[in-house]
Amino acid sequence: MLDGLLQALCLPASWRQEHHLAHLARRPNGRGLHCRSAAFHLASADIIATHPAKEARMIHHRALVHAKAHVDANTVQIGAGTKVWQFASVTRGTVLGDDCSVSPHAMLDGSIYGDRVIISGGVMAGAGFKVGNDVFLGPNVVLCNDAWPAVDKDGYDDERLRSKEWFTVTIGNGATIGAGAVILPGNRIYPDAVVAAGAIVNRNVPSGMVFCRGGSIKPKPEDWRENRMRWVS
Ligand SMILES: CC(C)(COP(=O)(O)OP(=O)(O)OC[C@H]1O[C@@H](n2cnc3c(N)ncnc32)[C@H](O)[C@@H]1OP(=O)(O)O)[C@@H](O)C(=O)NCCC(=O)NCCS
């Protein structure tokens, strides 16, 4: 019966065969589902929907984009298993790899992200950044691409930042950026490095090192996982 309904809604055969139909099946009714030529749009207030596959190669059919996320489907790439949650914004050529998570109020306006990247709520990142695999970006992390920002654009090379060949900040595989950290332009966070919550990073952070809030750099302790959970009672 579901298949018949979907046929009536003129969904492509390939979509009917894919297991993301499970998401549709979970819907209590067909409200908000309507057809737009070959592509279609799922508009529902409170469900996670598979994204309209205008460009099947750009947004993987196993990517999940919440109906209330803002995704520029004509320019971005989103990999398999990546989830973009409500009120997140993904625009202007942003590339997200596989199995990433983009939390509410994250703003990704360009730049490249690898696989399994966690992008927490409120992350602000425009163009000119290259983020590796397995990177954790904590809540409200800000990546900066303009060292001397001003209202006018003189001297600001947006085209170069969006070329995906030149990067002002790179973050290596497995790095962790703590809540509210600010990464200033021209700095590299090397693989497995940690940036403390609230830090303002004004120099490179070597692999496996911790950039502390006060600006000092220390080795990442081997037993860091044991100290992950701290309770007050
Ligand atoms: C970088 C970090 C891992 C360092 O942890 P650590 O090496 O165990 O640091 P310590 O707990 O030994 O801290 C040493 C001192 O520095 C302080 N400190 C550590 N990190 C700090 C930070 N980011 N801001 C302010 N003070 C900090 C501690 O309060 C402690 O002060 P005290 O000696 O007066 O008690 C940790 O502080 C951090 O920032 N974690 C990220 C948390 C986060 O952003 N989570 C993401 C979402 S939940």
Tell me about this structure.
By secondary structure, the protein is mainly beta. It folds into 2 domains: 40 residues, no CATH class; 170 residues, UDP N-Acetylglucosamine Acyltransferase, domain 1 (3 Solenoid). Helices cover 9% and strands 27% of the residues. It is built from 4 helices and 25 strands. The chain has a 10-stranded mixed β-sheet, with no helix packed on it. A hairpin with a 2-residue loop joins strand 1 and strand 2. The longest helix has 7 residues. The protein is globular. The relative contact order is 0.08. The N terminus is likely disordered. The site of coenzyme A has 11 residues, from loops.
What is the β-strand count? 25
As residue ranges, the low-confidence spans are: 1-56
Distance between the termini: 53 Å
Strand arrangement, major sheet: 3-4-7-10-13-16-19-22-24-25
The best one-word shape is globular
Amount of helix: under 10%
Order of helices and strands: HHHEEEEEEEEEEEEEEEEEHEEEEEEEE
Number of helices: 4
Going by CATH, the architecture of the largest domain would be 3 Solenoid
Which distinct ligands sit in these coordinates?
coenzyme A
Largest sheet: 10 strands, mixed
What is the CATH fold-level name of the largest domain?
UDP N-Acetylglucosamine Acyltransferase, domain 1
